[in-house]
Amino acid sequence: MGSGLEEGFEMLTAGLGGQLVGEQLELSEDAGLVCAARDGDRAAFGRLYDRYARMVHGIMLAKAPFTAVDDLVQDVFVLALRRLSTLREAGSFGAWLAAIARNLAKDHHRRSAPEEQLAVDVSEEEMEMRVSGGDQEASANLVLDAIKTLPDAYREPLILRLVEGMTGPEIARRTGLTAGSVRVNLHRGMQQLRALLSPSPGRPGQEGPKS
Amino acid sequence: MSAGNNQAKKEVHAMGNDYLWDRSGEPDPEIQRLEALLERFQSHRPRPAFPELAPATRWWMMLRQPRWVLGLAAVAVVAAVCVTTVLVYERKPNRDTAAGWDVSVMEGTPRLGRKAVSEKEGKSRLGVGQTLETGPQARARLRDEEVGQIEVDPGTRLRLLDMGSGLKRIALDLGTIHTFIWAPPGQFVVDTPSAMTVDLGCAYTLKVDDTGAGLVRTSLGWVGFKLNGRESFIPAGAACLTKPKAGPGTPYFEDAPSDFRSALTRFDFEDPTPQQRVADLGIVLAQARQRDALTLWHLLSRVDEPQRAQVFNRLVEFVPLPSGVTQAGILRLDQPMLDQWWNSFGFDDISVWRYWERSWSGATPPAIAK
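^ Those are the sequences you sent over. The predicted structure of the assembly is below.
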């Protein structure tokens, strides 16, 4: 634990910026909570839950039907609790948990009946009508469906940002991705979402994730 | 300036500190509307009661009971015999518990060391020190829940060098791998015969040919390439060549004009005379677009001193100097100033690289040391 804090201090004195230091301190805190949870401290695991529940919920919402998401989130944490002893780097808890969530979402997608699966085809006319109409719930469903048609790389950060209310730096910190990739994918995903929701006839073509 | 340059400039500008990124700056009404609309999908379920873990402190209580002591003693004897047998007859890592990657066969029959593995066998394990070879027909997938996933193309040979807590290291001797890494930035390193590749988040493809030359293409996040103090940063959409002895070339965006890319390759690896280098540098500078700031920034430290001002003048046309950075500082290759200028390009924060580099830069990659 001490080394994480010392490294954080070293970076501060090296003038590398407060954000990175904050990230390192948070990783150290995570590591402490993971170690305590491994020793049977349920309160520590509860704090990890509080810290990461929004991330897991967002990842699940990006990949699974809304009605199944809460149960799947719980499954992810129960599975993580059982496997906690296999996590070699306690500081990588977020990235590890995100991987479990993605895998569980994939399993759910494979198992679920076709009618429960994601792809919701909505005509452009219907989309425009519903988005501009007064029915908030229908509009919300439509926007969520539109986000779910975007490539994976854009879908997840957009939902974490727009639904879960996380900031870009927070998404990067929690998921273990770099700030740069999260920023690019948020930005491009938003561009595509605007194009999808735009009422104008000649919508711009979509740009895929960089590959 | 072309429409493409304008678009790139707009994108770099739009990715600054904006409302979408961290709620700083002027609020975007459309994003605010979407936030309000989608808020309903947040979870309001209270924290569940998690099943209790078997606390590590309880096991000793069992030792108070004699039958447990006898049972454990018997188990210990059997275990000792088994361990000794395994150590004597099979000096190789345990498939299930040793640090390593799970290997699943995607196609054909790859080889793990001397052993051929087939799809029927389910998952195998690539342990530290072992080699995976796919041959001309086979493909395989490596996966570790904490690190990421690597797809291995036909004609590839790779070795697992390290699976330690802070560093996961693979040597790619030949062939092609496609990686998607979710371990924290800086922990996953691939050695090639001509450079080290350091994952700084996400996804890339790495190829090594039979001369030891390599090519990295980044699809998400960014990647660092390094050999003997020469380093290249390759963000999503960019690529970089590396050659034995020369090390990493200058990174470029793959949509750059072909004349630009050809001149850059000649400049990096082929030009035999200073005059030819100057001529090719001229082509690169003339054809550079806004987003080729990536390439020009790297060139600052790679051109001969007389040409550095030319590169500076072209780069500053695309990206103005941030406050506190001076022309004189850049021309004398002041590292903090170069880093500060890089950070204003909108790619990734270079301090991530500087920080993580410290954790592995001391070690000479075995693949290169050979």
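The radius of gyration of chain A is 19 Å. Chain A touches chain B through 72 residues (CB under 8 Å).

Shout if you want it in another format.
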